[in-house]
Amino acid sequence: MDMTTAEILLTVAAVTLGVQLMRWVPFAIFPEGREVPEAMTLLSKVLPAAMMGMLVVYCFRNITPWEYPFGIPEIISAAVVLALHYRIGNCILSIVAGTVCYMIMQQYIFV
Amino acid sequence: MGVKKRAFKAAFPNTISIMAGSTSLGVVYGMLMETAGISAPWAIMMSAVAFCGSMQFAAVPILAASLFEPLQVLVLSLMINVRHIFYGISMLEKYKEMGKLKAFMVYTLCDESFSTESHCTVPEKVDRKWFYFFMSLMIYFYWVAGTAIGSMAGRLITFDTTGLDFAMTALFIVLFTEYWKKKENRSAAAMGVLASLTALLVFDGVTFMIPAMLLMLMAVFVRKKIWI
């Protein structure tokens, strides 16, 4: 890589500015004390669950349903997480077991 | 026990799976930057200052190719990070009255802090402010520390960490399930998945977010008959 220090710094600044603008917008528009409109209050109730759905989809965005390995490691590991979480309901256990399952499949089965 | 110590102890267990997920992703990022020819101090600085996982990954090829395109990088960062607007709207209430800690909370608001903090409840006798602050601080630390490890000592790691980053996916699945278990959240959760899948069918893994978010807005406002 041959960029000058100033060029790297400006690139870091551009990345930072982009994300920071997005993080501050809602807090800048609705500072504390200012009444939040009903539509926003409604959104703030709906969005956590909806965005969690989007994050789950986002995590699976790279699976290839029509090509090997057809997302099988992801689907099986996700099923392990779900099954444990419904049966036992211990967050840490569900996450650790699902992750170990995925690591085994990635490293030994679907190499 | 002091107020801070108690809040720290209460916050930590909520971040354990993020510790696994963020640190390992941070290590991967650090190694990637190192192989792209970007030295450790720059990689660590990027993580500490920019602190936005997916956009940092997206910027690696640009840096690796020594392309100096700040405007393009800015536009890309705005696009990839647009979801933070929805996180902010969700956290307006929770981050209220946090005084000088608030700036840090907003500065580091990310997928991980949003998902844990919007979901968990503050235990009894624990100070709310410090509880949320320590959670965000730990999440921030995991990512920066992971980057430092990966960029400085990535080659020394002999333990095969392939697939360890699934911890983050597993965490999101667990948190999603928690919402799903409560009947009143179920339609919102399903709507989020449907909107995202629909958008993903048309757009790719990065650009699907904006259309997905627009679909969500439409779904909410049409259902509740609120027209802006």
Structure description:
- The complex is a heterodimer of chains A (111) and B (228).
- With 111 residues, chain A is mainly α.
- Chain A is built from 4 helices and no strands.
- Chain A starts with a helix and ends with a helix.
- Chain B has helices at residues 3-11, 16-35, 40-49, 53-64, 70-80, 84-91, 102-107, 111-119, 128-153, 166-181, 183-202, 209-223.
- Helix content of chain B is 71%, strand content 0%.
- The longest helix of chain B is centred in the middle third of the chain and has 26 residues, at 128-153.
- The chains are: A mainly alpha (111), B mainly alpha (228).
- The interface between A and B is large, with 71 and 99 residues.
The helix-strand sequence of chain B is: HHHHHHHHHHHH
Write the H/E string of chain A, N to C: HHHH
How big a fraction of the residues of chain A is strand? under 5%
Broad structural category of chain B:
mainly alpha
The total count of strands of chain B amounts to 0
Query: If you average the pLDDT of chain B, what whole number results?
Result: 91
Question: Helix count of chain A, per DSSP?
Answer: 4
In short:
The complex is a heterodimer of chains A (111) and B (228). Helices cover 74% and strands 0% of the residues of chain A.
Secondary-structure topology with pairs:
The complex is a heterodimer of chains A (111) and B (228).
Chain A: H1 5-29, H2 38-59, H3 72-87, H4 91-109
Chain B: H1 3-11, H2 16-35, H3 40-49, H4 53-64, H5 70-80, H6 84-91, H7 102-107, H8 111-119, H9 128-153, H10 166-181, H11 183-202, H12 209-223
Helix pairs in contact in B: 1-9, 2-3, 2-4, 2-9, 2-10, 3-9, 4-5, 6-8, 8-9, 8-10, 10-11, 11-12
